[in-house]
Amino acid sequence: MSDYVYFTQRKSDDLIKIGHSTCVTERLAFLRTKHGKMELLGLIPGTISDEKNLHEQFGMCRVVLEWFNPRDELMDFINTYARPYPLRKHSV
């Protein structure tokens, strides 16, 4: 199994969750049972430590725990680095 840091957006309030999982599809299914409609914005290969570093990096956007406002800094990062699931190799 691979480790991923994922970015998912809750449709009820547009907040973005930055989380970690080894099985993104199962994690997203679980989150939908708790939070309703959610959109997977993308993911990057990463560990729990990488997730925590991103929480710190985007602390200015944090609302509560792992939930963040979709401010430009965070959205730019997601649009630049996150990839659709499943990950595809991109040529440089």
3D architecture notes:
The chain has helices at residues 24-35, 48-57, 72-81; strands spanning 4-10, 16-21, 38-45, 62-64, 67-68. It has 92 residues and is α+β, with helices and mostly antiparallel strands. It has one domain (4-81). A hairpin with a 5-residue loop joins strand 1 (4-10) and strand 2 (16-21). The longest helix has 12 residues, at 24-35. The model is unreliable at 88-92 (pLDDT under 50).
Task: Write the SSE topology.
Layout: E1 4-10, E2 16-21, H1 24-35, E3 38-45, H2 48-57, E4 62-64, E5 67-68, H3 72-81
Antiparallel strand pairs: 1-2, 1-3, 2-5, 4-5
Characteristic key phrases:
single chain; 92 residues; alpha+beta; five-stranded antiparallel sheet; 5 strands; 35% helix; disordered C terminus
Form type: globular
What percentage of the residues does DSSP assign to strands (E)? Answer: 25-35%
Largest β sheet strand count, sense and barrel closure: 5 strands, antiparallel
Widest beta sheet: strand line-up? 3-1-2-5-4
Instruction: Characterize the quaternary organization of these chains.
Output: single chain
| Overall residue-averaged pLDDT value | 91
Give the proportion of residues in helices. Answer: 25-40%
- Our count of domains comes out at 1
Summing up helix and strand content along with how strands pair, one would put the structural category as: alpha+beta
Query: Any idea what the radius of gyration is?
Result: 12 Å
